[in-house]
Amino acid sequence: MTRYASPPVFYRTAGLWRPWMGLATLLFGVPAIVYGLYFAPPDYLQGESYRIIFIHVPCAWVSMFAYVAMAGAGAAALIWHTKLSELAVLAIAPIGAGFTALTLLTGMLWGRPTWGAYWVWDARLTSELVLLFLYLGVIGLANAYGDSRRGARAAALLALVGLVNLPIIHYSVRWWNTLHQGETVRIFGESSMHESMLWALLAAAMAAKFYFLWSLLGRLRLNLLIAEREKGWVARELKLESADA
């Protein structure tokens, strides 16, 4: 693992893996979205409006998955002071913020026909909004310092503190009387969603995670080039890529 923490080694390795992440996104995402939006049977209670679940739920899952990854990178940055971990915090934050914003937007669009309003101060919606503010706080704090490495470590600390919000998001439908529907997909136990819908939702979730990885590898490669622009390996890698192109 120490070897892959080296900026030039990681840059080359990420460049090899990134196209495969993009291909996996398409292989899982295209059939899942097409089937979910056009061919899956309508829900017996919500009718056609439930179809937004094939976008909303995968985005919600990745919004939390990305935060765990960001906090993990933040812990590594604070403990081992590795540049790659610091850059990972800064790379994950805008991607996670995008997924969280899309979660909130699709949730509002789903809420209008279901609850009669675009927004209600539901426990899960509110805690997901807090998650968006945490992502934005990490981005803002990282950019508030003149020294980018100090900013990254300060942002890493905020990311670790914000972990307390994730159990609130996950268990909010159990802990409080909430309008948000309960869990329909369970890792342990039987899911309440019919198989004709479940496979498409799981495939869409896989596509969202592969897209997260594709985007993360791209942002990390770009951040490495910027952070290491005065190092000799950057010029060599860019020359090799230009020759291959």
Kindly describe this structure.
The protein has 8 helices and no strands. It has 245 residues and is an all-alpha fold. It has one domain (17-218). The two termini are 30 Å apart.
Instruction: Give the CA-CA distance, first to last residue.
Output: 30 Å
What can be said about the biggest beta sheet? none
What's the structural domain tally?
Answer: 1
Low-confidence stretches: none
Helix content: over 70%
How large is the count of helical segments?
8
Q: What is the global morphology?
A: globular
Q: Can you give the mean pLDDT? A: 90
Kindly name the structural category. Answer: mainly alpha
In total, the number of strands is 0
What fraction of the residues are assigned to beta strands by DSSP? under 5%
* Computed CA radius of gyration, to the nearest angstrom: 20 Å
In N-to-C order, the SSE pattern is HHHHHHHH
